[in-house]
Give the backbone structure.
Amino acid sequence: MPTRRQFLRNSAFLAGGLLFLPDEIRAAPAEQSLMILHTNDFHSRLESFPDNHPKYPGQGGIARLKTLIDKARKQHDHCLLLDCGDVFQGTPYFNRFGGVPEYKWMNMAGYEATTLGNHDFDMGTEHLSDLIRNHAAFVFVNCNYGLENTPLNGRILPRHIIKKGRLKIGITGVGVNPDGLIPADLCKGVIYHDPIKSVQEQVDLLRKKEKCDVVIVLSHLGFEYPGNQVSDRVLAAETHGIDVILGGHTHTFLEAPVSVISKNKKPVVVSQAGWAGLQLGHIKLTFK
């Protein structure tokens, strides 16, 4: 197994149907590399925005997104496709079909894991549980929602492990406080736990017990806030053992991921890819 991580060799975002990779990415020799592809806050944007949209004319949608995903997979032997929640709500597709087309799209695209966003509860826990059972071929991770007294019990994992080549990749997920954000009747029985403590517990298990080479957090906390609210940047700074935090909720467009120093003085890559499939985030890690 790899014994030393070379971190954040190259990272960027993909948009508009084109994949731009610096020459050094294509040429860099390595024992193994991992290309992490990620989305967040898809919000049922199955079709592109209308051509007369004032901000995103003709952009977004699954056709362009799938083109980017397929292109990246052709260029890299080991790709990992992840999502950070709020798959639902935003177009009539969700109102009419209740989330089925969104999950079918994710199955077709080959998503491997996602976490829970607040809008994923918009038709209640029982509806969401039925959707996951009948239509989702990917894994759901969340470690700070107590779901034992809800229909989602057993359908959401606190952590998950995926192998790519010789790499063992540990993944956990974390969600935003539902109080005042999700109507109480739609998340009845969900207990919110401290995100920093909950994530640290899972990261420690992934590192020490499972001996993972990489630890990734799928977050729906939000990138950053002006006050004391826990965000991805705060989570990175107040924990240790995380390599990458992929985020959602705040619809943040970043020109490139940012690096935050963790509690044990190691860099954590924090990234978010806007919303509505307008960007496909990607981070390439190289291992020697």
Observations:
- The chain is about 25% helix and 25% strand.
- The longest strand covers residues 5-15.
